[in-house]
Amino acid sequence: MATESTPANSENVPGPYTCHCLVARQMARQLTRAYDRRLRPAGISVGDFSILQFLSPGEGMTMADLGASLFMERTTLVRNLRPLTAAGLVETSRDPQESRRHMVAITATGRRKLSEAAALWSQAQEEFEAAAGAAEADEIRRRSLAALGLMQD
Question: What architecture (CATH level 2) is domain 16-123?
Answer without folding.
Answer: Orthogonal Bundle (1.10)
